[in-house]
Specification:
Blueprint: H1 2-19, H2 22-43, H3 56-85, H4 88-93, H5 99-129, H6 138-159, H7 168-181, H8 195-203, H9 205-217, H10 228-248
């Protein structure tokens, strides 16, 4: 019971810190919604003759994937590096707080942010563009969100091992994800793209997250979509991030 109470307190502490950071709120919550409005405004929301679905049907899951990556990977990495370099993690390590509580609190807070962004993106997609989750796909959507959030939280903690300072953390995290958005069916569909771009997208986890989410919004998918292969790839990346974190995570400043 004590561990659960500590976990809840740590998650609340992380969410409070996020709420008090205007920059984190903008890049995690506001910017994905701006992207959704911009892309659907530029490319319209007509029915695509080749698929029979509206244009926004591909943009809603793509932007949801972007929001999930921002809430879990980028937010976790930047916040953790700031706390490490300011000495907060070192002070926490000297307390009786178990390391798993800190990590679990970070993941729990990321799951709450993921739920918030999912509600916002799906709500705007449904009200503004007529795009909704298929009723039979709700279990698949839930599993994809949980697996994706856990995987990118682990990767976010892993990337802190190579961030030398709090000033470098935003640049390094953006350098990791921004190019991948363009080859991972987030901003533009990969159909018709050069083979080398498709291969790069297939290697990294963002594309598998976006495509797994896309299956739950596709109105022409019959039955319940179970993208198990993409879940396994996301899980493998998350496991790799967890192993790197266990081996190289630092509680003391690098500076």
């Amino acid at each position: 019971m004590r561990g659960l109470h500590q976990l809840r307190s740590e998650a609340s502490f992380n969410l409070l810190g996020f709420r008090r950071s205007p920059a984190a709120t903008f890049f995690t919550v506001i910017l994905p919604l701006i992207f959704l409005v911009i892309f659907t405004s530029i490319f319209g929301n007509e029915v695509v003759s080749s698929t029979g679905a509206r244009v926004a049907t591909s943009y809603v899951p793509g932007i949801l994937a972007l929001a999930l990556v921002s809430a879990n990977f980028m937010n976790a990495a930047i916040v953790t590096v700031i706390r490490r370099e300011s000495g907060v993690l070192k002070a926490m390590r000297a307390t009786p707080l178990p390391p798993w509580v800190y990590v679990g609190g970070q993941v729990a807070a990321s799951l709450v942010l993921t739920a918030l962004m999912t509600a916002l993106v799906i709500g705007i997609g449904w009200l503004g563009y007529g795009v909704g989750v298929q009723s039979g796909a709700l279990p698949s959507l839930f599993i994809t969100l949980v697996v994706g959030a856990a995987a990118f939280s682990a990767l976010g903690l892993a990337i802190t091992c190579v961030c030398p300072s709090e000033q470098a953390a935003p640049a390094i995290t953006n350098m990791c994800v921004l190019p991948l958005y363009f080859v991972s069916d987030v901003f533009i569909p990969s159909e018709g793209a050069p083979r080398w771009m498709t291969l790069i997208g297939d290697i990294f986890p963002i594309k598998h997250l976006a495509l797994a989410l896309g299956r739950t919004f596709d109105p022409f998918v019959e039955g319940v979509p179970w993208p198990v292969g993409r879940w396994l790839i996301l899980g493998a990346w998350g496991l790799g991030g967890a192993l790197i974190t266990v081996r190289y995570f630092r509680w003391t400043p690098r500076g």
